[in-house]
Amino acid sequence: MGREDMANPLETEKISKLFMRYLIPSLVGMLLMAINLAVDGIMVGNRLGPVALAGVNIAGPVYTIFVGLSLWLGIGGATLYSQAMGRKEEGRARVIFTHSILLIGLGTIVIGALALLFHEPLVYALGANEETAPFAAAYMNVFLVFGFIFTLENASSIFVRNDGNPTLAMAALVTTAFSNVGINYIILYVLDLGVREIAFGTIIAAFLGLLVLSSHFFTKRSNLKFVRVRFDSLLSKQALRFGFPSFLAEVGISVFTVSHNIMFARLAGTVGVAAFSVVNYVHAVMLLMFLGMGAAVQPIVSYFHGAAEHEKKRQLMKLAIRTGFVAGFICFLVGQFAAVPIVNIFGDFPQEVKELAVRGIRLFFIAYLVMGVNFVLMTYFQSIGEVAIATWITAGRQIILMLLFLLTVPFLLGVHAIWLAIPFAEITVLVLIYVYLKRSNIHFGEKRVF
Question: Where would a tag sit more exposed on the chain, N or C end, judged by fewer CB atoms within 10 A?
Fold first, then answer.
């Protein structure tokens, strides 16, 4: 049976069932990756101490930028890919896939090599001091050299999901997560090694995930075939334009991390940076869950948009927005009632670090009440090619408004108000989106969602 003879769930299944088909694997995979990051933090904090944990956190933006590069061309290319598949243009879709993967691999190799030349000033620019710089540099330099493995694995996962195999994409994430935990446990507790080897463990785990994803290319259901291509500047510009909001979202994570590290270092010293590193690890868990929701929405919306199925888009968005609200409310409750045990699992830190981190979780988690909805709305506009609106949502919530609140509220209300910059930004953006949609008479399909 050839691919053309197989029923396409995007065309035959009910919206609710289709959404769950993509949502559950995306959430499971992303949550396992998030737990993997948290376990990494727990092991580093307990085995190597708070200064090493702070150093890894400071180097985190390099990891995030590499994720951003893979998402930029990965999501951009995959959006074009799914739209082409919705129009039944399978040959064009293969060209888009091949072109995107080549650009991602070559691009990250070049960027990593250039950044490695300036690694020392880069570490201090990210917020390191004499205590944390050795740990941050050791972790960062490994990613600058071998980060292309991670970007290829991440981009391949996006394309496999867009090619109708979200379960395999989840399996690859599961493989990466469990292998990373196992490898890093051996590195820290058996071999008694340090931060540099932890970074190598993460790269090895990503390679194993890439091996799992490669099995999709040999199945009959796969349209992901490498074909001969020439550099296409128009296609590159389209992929970069469509994927830019996802890249900007990752840049926003780096801006968030660096700006909060600097602000806490200025107002609370190393204690503040250590407390923030704990909250940041927990935030990674929650953030990847919301990213999983976006990963579930994007392939479906892109396909429906290419196929001009406007009513199906409306039904999907109504369901996705409700899911975003419910997930955000659950995360908020977790933060309010489980802050103390969450902080305690990261190690036996000084009491002042624990108290600041507990307060931080309870205040910071207010953002999750609306963050999921903002992610879903941004993904929708990106998936239909309304890049300007998607970019505005991303820049507003993660960079512009966040920095505005970060640079004003703490000086008015004190150090604890640093935790409120993200909640204030998220709530403000959702209000502005609502006003914009009402005034612009924009519909998610043929009828309003709200």
Answer: N
Angle between helices 133-162 and 50-86 (to 10 degrees): 20
Task: Give the separation between CA 82 and CA 159, rounded to whole angstroms.
Answer: 9
Residue 166 is assigned to a structural domain of this protein:
yes
**Closest of 37, 418, 370 to residue 259, by C-alpha:** 418
- Joined together, the tokens standing for residue 249 give 């979202």
Residue 5 within a domain? no
CA distances from 421 to 139, 287, 389 (A): 28, 16, 22
Summarised one tens digit per residue, pLDDT across range 282-294 is 887 788 788 888 8
* Three state DSSP letters for 374-400: HHHHHHHHHHCCCHHHHHHHHHHHHHH
Whether 70 maps to a domain, the answer reads: yes
Q: Is residue 4 part of a domain?
A: no
What are 384-431's pLDDT values in tens digits? 888 999 999 999 998 999 999 999 999 888 888 999 999 999 999 999
As a residue count, the chain comes to: 450
Q: Give the CA angle between residues 102, 103, 104 to the nearest 5°.
A: 90
Q: In whole angstroms, how far apart are CA 190 and each of 54, 182, 231?
A: 23, 11, 47
SS3 of residue 338 by DSSP: coil
Look at residue 214 and give its three-state secondary structure.
Answer: helix
- Domains identified in the chain, total number: 1
Query: What pLDDT score was predicted for residue 381?
Result: 92
Residue 203 neighbours by CB distance under 10 Å: 19
What is the secondary structure of 243-281 as a DSSP string?
HHHHHHHHHHHHHHHHHHHHHHHHHHHHHHHHHHHHHHH
- Output the CA–CA distances (angstroms, integers) from residue 268 to 65, 253, 357, in the order listed: 27, 21, 12
Half-sphere exposure of 274 (CA within 13 A, CB side): 25
Q: Could you give the CA distance from residue 168 to residue 160 in angstroms, rounded to a whole number? A: 8
User: Could you list the residue range(s) of the whole structural domain that residue 345 is in?
Assistant: 14-440
**Looking at residues 207-226, what average pLDDT do you find?**
88
Strand locations in 184-260, DSSP E?
none
Quick one: pLDDT at residue 444?
59
Q: Read off the pLDDT of residues 325-372 as tens digits, 9 standing for 90 and up.
A: 999 999 999 999 999 998 988 777 888 989 999 999 999 999 999 999
**DSSP assignment letter at 3:** G
Other C-beta atoms closer than 10 Å to the C-beta of 188 total 21
CA-CA distance, 344 to 323, in Å (whole number)? 30
